Structure of Cleavage and polyadenylation specificity factor subunit 1:
Amino acid sequence: MASNVADINDDELEVYGNQQATNVEITSYAFEVCDSLLNIGPCGNITMGEPAFLSEEFVNTAEPDIELVTTSGHGKNGALCILQRSIRPQIVTTFELPGCTNMWTVVGGASAGNKSEADTHAFLILSQDDSTMVLQTGREINELDSSGFTTHCPSVFAGNIGSNKYIVQVTAMAVHLLQEAELVQTVTLEVESVVVTATMADPYLVLLTQSGELVMLVYKETKQGIVFNGEDKELVNDTRDARFIPPLVSQFHVSLFSPFSWEEIPQTNFPLHEWEHVLCLKNVSMEYEGTLSGLRGYIALGTNYNYSEDVTCRGRILLFDIIEVSVHLC
């Protein structure tokens, strides 16, 4: 064998090879099941029959409740599949709700002690022919006797707004904003006819009236409050931090309601000024030449502007004359 590399010919290289390693490493793989898509195929056989467990409420139905049983899969992945037409809840309790026309579930804000309630339904709102029923859900379902919800008239829509922080209840002539069961704000609608339907895409709320009028409301949060300047007696914006709890100020309205349906009569709403509180409301009789008795009935309203201790107390006396279904200020 030649000792000089230059003397090695091609035949010797082909027979003996070079000095590089000629062994081959075989790569091994280990397969693990990460996920599986369940299905009912391939089906080997199929039959139908009655369910083994069924609540009494579903036994005496017009159409029998039938299940389908199939053999599916192959080998160790074989199984029996039971197919149902719909879910079958286990009925805990049942009670009748006559006259119920619509229903909504809303999320209640989480309390300080239990944050897990933030994403659970807290209230069930049922709209009836002439009223609204509000049920509080939990381990039991209880009706709320006193709350910020409007219950004397039917509801048109209900839902959550502000990332489930608040609850919106829409009635025929107003929109109510609530936090849990406490009323925060009421927006009286100045429309010609009643609201018949509504839809919401947070933070927008769109209403449709019977006459075809569209009303859009938007939810906005602000940290600005109103402070009365004692010297100039003007309203100025005052920005507060998140620790400041803004006060809830009610805005009063005077409205007429039907004595038959107890619904608000359209175009009879008279809103009062902001920060104006009603102190008294009485029926009074005053002289009037157009009646046989010489007297005519009016509604007298006494108000007060609750500004601050630095502003002189002031108010108004309003006298209303009701003519058919229209309200006129005398």
